């Protein structure tokens, strides 16, 4: 390599201008040829000369595609690919293997490790660019979709249907999954995997399946199957809705305390005293005392009458509310 290229840092990337490519090869001459060809074609090019460096650069920069040498000393390309695909942060990145091994078992190993394609050595830059173009189009569309969802405040995840692995997630999605299910990538909550697999046939026919909903107190998390982003990968959009505004409305409408408002909310939802006590972390006796004060403030004698009055007022204030 005649001069050491000045590789950009992740902070300088503008993905609206160019896509980011990570080349992994322990031979400097191979890096130089590909770097120059890709740079001239408008790509932002990163390099790594070992498997360990490749994993570090990939996790830091999140390239749009990886060109990966299969045979390297130490950690080889097959192991690098497996680790990239096993990590939620990098699992969505397409990998094209570069190999001088043309035996069928080696090519199969490359694909089984997570590669989407391969090119044989000696490397021909035009062939590499053509193969990249095929896989970059799908990756670019998936990225644009995810960016649009993020911009509007939606949490989203990508799940591989065959093994249920969580391949990608937004920061908000990570928080929600941990909060509702106590899970972290690459684990996908079992209820989400089951829901996805039950409705795959509908989704493949472009029929939107029923949404999945999980309640947690006055909050609920919904999942909507958005689209297929790969052969077996599905983009799922998550949204959390809170009825805290509904509870506050009850308090203002009937001059209730915060806890009385919560109790009345769950009465409207059809919960019995024991269930309300479990939800609020109190005792059925305490809930009963709150209800007695609620009945007095509303001028009613039964929970049915209280629920009916509260529902009527809520529909006036928030027509979209569903009891």
From TrEMBL:
The modification 4-aspartylphosphate is found at residue 69. It holds the Pfam family GerE. One of its GO terms (molecular function) is DNA binding. InterPro entries: CheY-like_superfamily, Sig_transdc_resp-reg_C-effctor, Sig_transdc_resp-reg_receiver, Tscrpt_reg_LuxR_C, WalR-like, WH-like_DNA-bd_sf. Residues 20-136 form the Response regulatory domain. Keywords: DNA-binding, Phosphoprotein. Residues 249-314 form the HTH luxR-type domain. It comes from Caenimonas koreensis DSM 17982. GO terms for biological process: phosphorelay signal transduction system; regulation of DNA-templated transcription. This is Response regulator. It comes from the Bacteria.
